[in-house]
Amino acid sequence: MTTAELPVIAAVDGSWRSYEALEWAARDAVRRGLPLTIVHVRPLNRHASQEEQRREAEELLAEAVGRVAQVAPTLHTSTLAPMDFPAAALTALSEHASLLVLGSRGLGGFRSLLIGSNSLTTASMARCPVVVVRSGREDEEGAEAAPATHSDIVAGVAADESSEAVLDFAFEAAMTRPGARLRIVHGWTMFSSMLSGGPVFDRDAAAGAAERTLAELTAGRPEKYPQVEVVQEPVHGSASHTLVTASATAALTVIGRRKGGEELGFGLSPVAQTTLTHALGPVAVVPC
């Protein structure tokens, strides 16, 4: 099975956030022409028998399948209920997924947390892109949010090869949404201009260098995806503020994550972690 044929995986735990993520995943699987696998990770719980956990998992997954049938009745759907620590199980399953979709927090999350530990850990370690779904209504316990009607895809890119995977994912995501506009955000500073060999004290020249960087990063892609309207946005300073603000009206915000630093907890850059933690809409974290 090729990467293009691997399923979209959606994790559910019975919380309204996970069901919101499930419905987002179902719609995205339809757009991509991929099957959907619904996963409920049974926790390692000494206070409940395996039979009781199995029965609860079956009931939860049956409800999840019913919800998918309402939003995507023709979608091919399967279910899994492994017993493990949630982040560990989802990271292992990501080896066999084209996309992994999670809610921002589960049933066990503290209300004071903007993103749950399982979601953050999985987004930092998964082998495939991870979408963490936030509705912007995180303060409304039990809220049922309507599907987002926004069409913009927003991508945050750096001036290096890590942006290749981010841009590939963002253009593909925009292509599956007719009429979608792709906003490509690149943060620059005088210091970053100096590192790239540009003039340090000339703000206009530094801004021009950032524009050239964006042009180089996107070279050839507008021709490959002529149906996607592209807007390039060089931003003076950190891109995280722009990305968080844009996420409120974006169908999806796309950021990158370094490969190789997972064991040390270095997968997410400060910009990526800030964006993922504070975003007001769905965020895709792409291994680069």
General description of the model:
The protein has 288 residues and is an alpha/beta fold. It is built from 10 helices and 10 strands. It has a 10-stranded mixed β-sheet with strand order 3-2-1-4-5-10-9-6-7-8, with helices on both faces. Strand 4, helix 4 (117-125) and strand 5 form a beta-alpha-beta unit. Helix 1 crosses helix 2, helix 3 (86-93) runs parallel beside helix 4 and helix 9 (240-247) packs parallel to helix 10 (270-278). The longest helix has 22 residues, at 50-71. The protein is elongated, with a radius of gyration of 19 Å. The two termini are 22 Å apart. The model is unreliable at 109-113, 139-147 and 190-195 (pLDDT under 50).
The CA-CA distance between the termini, in Å, is 22 Å
Order of helices and strands: EHEHEHEHEEHEHHHEHEHE
Quote the beta fraction. Answer: 15-25%
Average pLDDT for all residues: 84
Strand order of the largest sheet: 3-2-1-4-5-10-9-6-7-8
Give me the secondary-structure category: alpha/beta
Explain the layout of strands and helices:
Layout: E1 8-11, H1 16-32, E2 36-39, H2 50-71, E3 77-80, H3 86-93, E4 99-103, H4 117-125, E5 130-133, E6 153-156, H5 163-175, E7 181-188, H6 190-195, H7 203-218, H8 221-224, E8 229-236, H9 240-247, E9 252-257, H10 270-278, E10 283-287
Parallel strand pairs: 1-2, 1-4, 2-3, 4-5, 6-7, 6-9, 7-8, 9-10
Antiparallel strand pairs: 5-10
